[in-house]
Amino acid sequence: MNAVGFAWRSLVRQPARASLGILGVAAVGALLFDMLLLSQGLILSMSDLLERTGWDVRVSLDESGPGRGRSGVINQVSDVLADIAALPEVRSAIAIRFADARVEGPGGEAAFAFVQGVSDSARMPWTVTRGRDAAGTDQLVINDALATTIGAEPGATITMRPSCEGDSDALPPVSFQVAGIADFPFQETGEGTAAGSLAALSRACGGNQDDKAHMLLVTSTGDADAAAAMIRRHRPGLAAISNDDVVGRVQQSGFTYFRQISTVLTTVTLAFAVLLITVLLTVSVNQRLGEIAALRALGFSRRRVAADVLSESMLIVGIGGLLSLPIGLALAAMLDRILKGMPGIPEALHFFVFDPSALLIHAALMTATALVAALYPVRIVARLPIAATLRSEVIG
Amino acid sequence: MSVETIVDAQNVSRVFAMPAGPVTAVRDVSLRIAAGDHLAVRGPSGCGKSTLLHMLGCVDAPSSGTLRFDGRDVAALSDSARSLLRLRQIGFVFQRFFLLPMLTAWENVELPLSEARVPRDERRARTRELLEYVGLGSRADHRPSQLSGGEMQRVAIARALANRPRLLLADEPTGELDAATGAQIAALLDRVNADGTALVIVTHDPSLADRARRVLAMRDGRVEQDITR
Asked: By residue range, what is the domain housing residue A276?
C-alpha cells in the first residue's frame, strides 16, 4: 500500500474529522477562488465589453472612458469626424452625443432616461432585440428597462423633454415613435436608455444644438494605439484613447482597490486553511503516535511516515479544493449580482469572471497550502522518538 | 555446532536525561544473541527490560558500549540504514499489538512487505502463508476491531514475520491477554523459534519466560542472572 492509499485509509478511518477538514478547505477554497476571479474579473469583463462594441478608439475633449463621457462638448463635430475618418489608420468613426431626458409613455407613465444621439452610420453602438432600428429624426430605440417602466413597445409614441447643454429647462416636449427595443453595452442595471440619430436628439434639443457631440467612436484599421496617436497628433485639442488604454487606466486606478482587497482576503483565507489543516493533522497524528512508532520500529522509514502525513494533507486539500470550485462559482454569481446593484455599474460588466489562469493559480495556492499545513505534523512524525513513544504508549 | 551471531552487545548502557537528573535504565550489559536462540528477559517493572529490547531492536541507541548487528556497528548506521535493517532483519511484537485499525488483517500483514518493495505476487503468497501459519487464514478480511485480543496478537506476529526476520523481539506479548490466550500465543512464539527465528521475549509472565532456553533476570538495569537450560 503506497502513501496515498495509506493516507486515504487514514482519512476514511475518521470520517467526521476528514469531512470537517474537507468542508473547511472547500469553504476556504471557494473564497480563494472567488478572490482570484475578482482580482481579474472587472478588467477581463471591461476588456471584453469594449471589444464587443467594435470601436477600439474613443475620442473626447478630456479622455472620457466608455459609457457616458459627458464632460466636454466637441463643436463642429461633422468637420472633426470627416477629418478623423480620412486618416489612413481609421476605418470608420461616429459621433455620439448624450443627454438626460424625462420620457413619458403612451399611458402617461414617466421616467428619467439617458439619451444618445449618433451620427449616421451603418453600425450603431446598440443592438436591436425587437422591432427595428431608429430612422430619421422622429424615431428612437429604447431599452427594455425604459420600455417596461413607461409601458412602451415598438410602434408606440413617447414624449421626451431633454436637458440639453445650456437650455435645460426651457425646452418643450417632443414626440418620438419607438422603432424598436435595443440593448446598450454600457447601460446600467434598471436604467432607462433611449437612442436615435444625432439629428433626432438635436430636434429634441430645440434644433439649436446642431453639430455638437461628446465623443467620437473610432474603428482603427488594425492598430488602435497607432490610430489614437495619429488622432492626437492630427487634432491636438482632442484626447484619443484606445481600448487597451482604457483598461490600463481602470487597472491602475479604481481597480487597485479590488486587487488589494482580494490580496488581503486571499492571504487571510489561506492562513485559515493552513491553520485548519495543521490542527486537524496534528490532532490526528498525536492520536496515532503509538501506531506510527510501531511502524517505525517495524522498519518504516522517516520519509515514508512523513509521506503518509503529507499525502493525507494533499488528499484533504485536493478533495476540498475540487469541491470548492462549484461552490466558488455559485458564490461568485451571487456576489456579482450584489456588486452589480451598485449605481453606475454597466449591466454587462461583471466583477467575477472565470479565467483558466485563475484555476491554475487556485491549484498552485491550494497545493502550497497543503504543503505548508503538513510541515508541523510531518515534523512530529519525522522526529518521533520511537523507543520513548512505545514506552509511553504502554505506560499510558 | 557453530552458530551465527546476530546481535552482539558489549557493555551497553542507556542513560536518560530527566529533570531530576540522569537515570540509568541499563548498565553495562553484555549479551550475544545467535541464530535460533530463545531468550527471555524478566524482572520487575522499571528494571530496564524494554530499554534493552529497544536497543537490541535498533530503535534506541546505547549511551555507551557497542552494539553490533550482523557485525555492523549500529551506532555508525544512518537512520535510514537502521530503518532498513529493522525492516529486513528484525521483527517486533508489542504488548498493545499496534495493528492499524483501518486496515484488514491481510493488509496489516502485507504492509511491511509493501514497504520492502516485495513484488505483488510474492507479497500475496507470503501474506496468505503467514495468516495460515498463525491460524487466521479465514479472518484475512477482518479489521482489528473484529478480532479478539489473541487474534490481534497473532496478526501482529504474522506482520512481524513478514520479511523473514532473523530476530523477533516481543515486549510483553501476552500482557494484554488472559492466561489461556496467552498460552496459545506463547505456543505460537515457540513454533516461530523452532522454525529458525531467534526470539527475545521481555515478560513479567514466569510461565512465558520458562519456555525460553535462556533467561536473563534484570534488576536496576543490570543482568543479575543469566541462566541457560
From this structure: 3-50+254-395
Instruction: Report the pLDDT value the prediction gives residue B57, as an integer from 0 to 100.
Output: 92
Structural domain total, chain A: 2
DSSP calls for A214-238: SEEEEEESS-HHHHHHHHHHH-TTS
Same domain, A205 and A165: yes
With beta carbons under 8 A apart, name residues in chain A contacting B85.
Answer: 299
* Last residue of one domain, picked from the residues A221, A238, A273: A221
Closest CB to B84 among A2, A293, A299: A299
Same domain, yes or no: A373 and A340 = yes
B59 touches chain A (CB under 8 A): yes
* Domains, chain B, with CATH or none: 5-228 (3.40.50.300)
How far, in Å, CA of A318 to CA of A368, rounded? 11
Cβ distance of A294 and B83 shorter than 8 Å: no
Whether residue B114 contacts residue B127, with contact meaning beta carbons closer than 8 Å, is answered with: no
Tens digit of each residue's pLDDT (9 = 90 or more) over A7-49: 888 888 888 888 988 998 899 899 889 888 887 787 888 888 8
For testing contact with chain A, the best of B60, B159, B166, B171 (most A CBs within 10 A):
B60
What region does A338 belong to: left with phi over 0, alpha with psi -120 to 50, or beta?
alpha
Same domain, A64 and A207: yes
- Chain A residues with CB under 8 Å of B94 CB are 294, 297, 390, 394
Which residue, A264, A263, A277, is CA-closest to A370?
A277
CA-nearest of B228, B171, B176 to B202 is B171
User: Is A247 a domain residue?
Assistant: no
**A298 and B159 in contact by Cβ < 8 A?**
yes
Q: Which of A10, A112, A300, A43 is nearest to B114 (CA)?
A: A300
